[in-house]
Task: inverse folding
């Protein structure tokens, strides 16, 4: 082992001469000073269109809360096979912004210290609400623990013991011991003394940005064979991108044989939250032959934003923006009433600021079925009003939804991927003209494939022209394939929220019944799917009974039409 150190402030790069996994070079170089950011920047300034990063393991310190920044690049290839970037603070690894036709190939990303810590439950309160945890050697100390994504695993299978936990606080007892106070607990809860526990951790003395890789306003970005072993939140997040491709990108918990630090117990988690998340894409991403396992939330989420309609008067709507109003004059917009009825799309003519939310509007928000941060205006959500003029008259009650129909990831592809062993959904999509095919999804705690707008998060939209085919789903603890929509009132939307959906030739095994649930859909095709249920026993939800479902079947349809 030897060290390469640059004299400029803020950078310390450690190069390891010994390979840690297939593809890393045995010899990292001759010991001359090396700066990863500067190496790429200088090559591009010199006119290079193909930049090769020398193989090796590099410990990188962040600058402006980012370990590597790529901005305003066009028609560039960055070759990083055999390159590992070790992030030395739990802040953003890589930011890619306003680039066109940029390709990055072969990079491995990990963190030391990790953005999570891990230990064993050694005591519990009688009601199992309070857990005392002894942290394993090799993981961040108790003082770095965050009240974020607390999970409990079985010590024998090293898989999740139970579903979500929402701690109220974490109390530091000493450097290796924590007390976790959960929001609720019950003697019948599944966790037990001796189980393993994981929770978020933070070491960011210079400030923190979320997510390992964030992509913003890029066109035709291509990320190939990027390996990611940790993140403080999402793995790959893209905002306002157009036609991104993720090819053979891999997310998993790092095996102990190649770990950066000797640990008393191997890693249980990969990422703290979602693996791949796309927001507001004008052309949706392609996820091809990617894999993601053991992350703290969804494998895939492709969505846009809904904004809340407070009043309508002929062609003019008063709208509270979720955050920024990502609708522009001339955009086609999706319109959904409070009861979930989808109206024909309209087109925006003009948009103007209209002040702030009123006391009356905030009182209305406080009563809604949505995330607390949205209901309370945390971070400025739903506090700014806009006057939106449409090309035709509409009548929509307060609490109805409006969203850009072109910024929800339309045209996405999720194909031949491998996802699972996570606490949430496998593939969650909300765009149109999309394909979900040939994927393998194992042991997701929630639905393996979910197509649904979400009033709770104000995530848009409703799907048209969607094919879900040839997927293999195993060990799903919820309904394997769900296509559904609900209004702000919590009831299933009428038919037509989703249109022209094909669910064909999927294989579902060792999972809960029903295997497929579809609501609120017209032009629906369900054909040639196979089922092998682990158990047919399932309590039928009251809402299903109210919708006329009399018994549990492999396929359940509610509010659907030819």
Result:
């Amino acid at each position: 082992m030897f060290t390469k150190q640059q004299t400029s402030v803020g950078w310390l790069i450690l190069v390891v001469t010994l390979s840690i996994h297939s593809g890393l070079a045995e010899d990292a170089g001759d010991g001359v000073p090396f700066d990863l950011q500067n190496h790429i920047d200088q090559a591009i300034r010199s006119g290079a269109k193909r930049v090769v990063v020398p193989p090796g393991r590099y410990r990188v310190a962040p600058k402006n809360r980012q370990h590597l920044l790529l901005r305003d690049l066009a028609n560039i290839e960055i070759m990083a096979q055999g390159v590992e970037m070790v992030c030395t603070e739990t802040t953003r690894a890589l930011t890619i912004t306003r680039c066109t036709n940029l390709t990055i190939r072969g990079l491995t990303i990990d963190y030391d210290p990790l953005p999570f810590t891990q230990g064993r439950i050694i005591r519990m309160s009688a009601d199992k609400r309070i857990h005392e945890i002894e942290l394993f050697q090799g993981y961040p100390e108790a003082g770095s623990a965050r009240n974020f994504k607390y999970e409990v695993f079985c010590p024998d299978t090293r898989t999740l013991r139970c579903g979500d936990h929402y701690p109220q606080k974490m109390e530091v007892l000493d450097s290796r011991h924590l007390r976790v106070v959960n929001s609720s607990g019950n003697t019948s809860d599944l966790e037990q003394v001796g189980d393993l526990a994981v929770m978020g951790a933070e070491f960011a003395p210079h400030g923190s940005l979320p997510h390992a890789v964030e992509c913003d306003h890029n066109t035709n970005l291509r990320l190939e064979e990027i390996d990611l072993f940790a993140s403080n939140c999402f793995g790959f997040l893209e905002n306002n991108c157009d036609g991104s491709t993720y090819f053979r990108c891999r997310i998993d918990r790092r095996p102990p044989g190649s770990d950066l630090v000797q640990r008393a117990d191997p890693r249980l988690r990969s990422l703290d939250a979602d693996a791949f998340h796309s927001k507001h894409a004008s052309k949706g991403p392609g996820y091809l032959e990617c894999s993601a396992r053991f992350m703290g939330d969804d494998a895939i989420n492709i969505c846009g934003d809904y904004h809340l309609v407070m009043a309508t008067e002929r062609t003019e709507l008063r709208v509270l923006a979720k955050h920024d109003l990502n609708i522009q004059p001339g955009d086609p917009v999706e319109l959904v009433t409070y009861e979930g009825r989808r109206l024909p799309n309209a087109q925006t003519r003009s948009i103007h600021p209209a002040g702030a939310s009123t006391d009356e509007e905030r009182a209305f928000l406080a009563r809604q079925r949505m995330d607390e941060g949205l209901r309370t205006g945390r971070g400025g959500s739903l506090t700014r009003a806009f006057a939106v003029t449409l090309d035709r008259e509409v009548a929509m009650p307060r609490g109805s939804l409006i969203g850009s129909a072109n910024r929800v990831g339309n045209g996405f592809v999720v194909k031949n991927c491998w996802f699972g062993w996570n606490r949430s959904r496998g593939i969650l999509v909300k765009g149109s003209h999309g394909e979900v095919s040939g994927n393998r999804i194992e042991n997701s705690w929630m639905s393996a494939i979910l197509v649904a707008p979400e009033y709770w998060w104000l995530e848009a939209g409703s799907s048209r022209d969607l094919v879900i085919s040839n997927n293999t789903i195993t060990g799903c603890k919820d309904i394997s394939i769900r296509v559904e929509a609900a209004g702000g009132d919590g009831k299933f939307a009428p038919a037509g929220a989703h249109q022209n959906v094909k669910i064909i030739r999927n294989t579902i095994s060792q999972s809960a019944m029903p295997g497929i649930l579809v609501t609120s859909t017209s032009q629906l095709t369900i054909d040639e799917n196979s089922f092998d249920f682990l158990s047919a026993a399932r309590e039928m939800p009251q809402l299903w009974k109210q919708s006329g479902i009399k018994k549990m079947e492999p396929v359940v349809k509610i509010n659907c039409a030819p």
Summary: Confidence is low (pLDDT under 50) at residues 1-33.
